[in-house]
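Students often ask why inverse folding is considered easier than folding. One informal answer: many sequences map to the same fold, so there is more than one right answer. In these notes we will look at a single instance of the problem. The structure comes first.
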């Protein structure tokens, strides 16, 4: 497995496929409609504009998973907090890819001087919860029945990792 920085041109189609499988078949994304090429174009533009990484895992030149983070909330005081996500292709889950991607994402967050990573995880997503706990994330709260998908209510838990960075945070 090789860790790479993803680009829209090289990885956009694979990321779109991974997102759309998660939308259609899991509660990892609380969405109903598949994403489009335009959605991915905007998603990459937002990541680039914010200076946010899109980190991928390739096997034999094929993208098998990716992770990223972005703005947690748009107000200035949240500038040291990011919300992250990690997705692994359905045929490659359970092989440590998510762990490698998350380790790289945490490293990038430290390098960019973020202080907190937050992940919203459906309470039924045991694999993601265990991955986050293994990396030191703690559950900071659960919002019961905040979404409805696949004919039932979904509960969303927030997992948080506090980093030692930045060394000298500033207001403003």
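Output (designed amino acids):
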């Amino acid at each position: 497995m090789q860790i790479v920085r993803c680009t829209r041109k090289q990885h956009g189609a694979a990321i779109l496929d991974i997102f759309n499988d998660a939308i259609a078949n899991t509660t990892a994304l609380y969405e109903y409609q598949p994403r489009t090429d335009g959605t991915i174009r905007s998603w990459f533009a937002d990541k680039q504009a914010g200076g946010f990484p899109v980190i991928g895992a390739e096997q034999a030149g094929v993208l098998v998973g990716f992770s990223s983070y972005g703005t947690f909330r748009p107000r200035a005081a949240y500038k040291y907090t990011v919300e992250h996500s990690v997705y692994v292709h359905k045929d490659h889950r359970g092989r440590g890819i998510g762990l490698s991607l998350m380790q790289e994402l945490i490293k990038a967050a430290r390098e960019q001087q973020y202080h907190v990573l937050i992940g919203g995880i459906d309470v039924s997503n045991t694999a993601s919860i265990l991955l986050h706990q293994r990396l030191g994330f703690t559950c900071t709260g659960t919002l019961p029945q905040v979404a409805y998908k696949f004919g039932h209510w979904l509960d969303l838990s927030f997992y948080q990792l506090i980093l030692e960075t930045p060394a000298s945070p500033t207001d403003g």
